[in-house]
Specification:
The chain has a two-stranded parallel sheet with strand order 1-2. Helix content is 44%, strand content 12%. With 96 residues, it is an alpha+beta fold. It contains 4 helices and 2 strands, in the order βααβαα.
Length: 96
C-alpha cells in the first residue's frame, strides 16, 4: 500500500521486542518467523528510509485497536480517517 501511494519514508512501530530485534539485528533464521522478517527487510529496500522502533505495549493502544478492527472486518478496508472505535485510544495515547 505504501509503495502504491509512492511513500518514501516508512516507520514500523512494534510492541514486540522479538520483532524489533529480528529486524534491527537480523540473523538468518530457518523458522517461519525468520522468513517473514526477511520478507519485511527485503520490502524495506524499496523505500529511501525505513525505521523500526519498539514502543511499550501500554503506549500502543491505537495500534491494538486498529489490529482488532482489521481482524473483525471481513473485507479490505482502507480509509484516510481513523475508525470511530479507535478515537478514545488515540486520545489516551496522545496524553501519555
Amino acid at each position: 500500500m505504501a509503495r502504491n501511494k509512492h511513500e518514501e519514508c516508512i516507520m514500523l512501530e512494534t510492541d514486540s521486542q522479538r520483532l524489533f530485534y529480528a529486524l534491527t539485528k537480523p540473523k538468518q533464521g530457518l523458522s517461519r518467523f525468520g522468513e517473514i522478517c526477511e520478507d519485511i527487510l527485503a520490502l524495506s529496500a524499496f523505500f529511501t528510509q525505513f525505521r523500526v522502533s519498539w514502543i511499550r505495549r501500554v503506549g500502543n493502544n491505537v495500534a491494538h485497536c486498529l489490529a482488532s478492527f482489521a481482524y473483525t472486518y471481513e473485507v479490505p478496508y482502507f480509509s484516510e480517517s481513523i475508525p470511530t472505535c479507535c478515537l478514545n485510544a488515540l486520545e489516551a495515547d496522545s496524553i501519555t
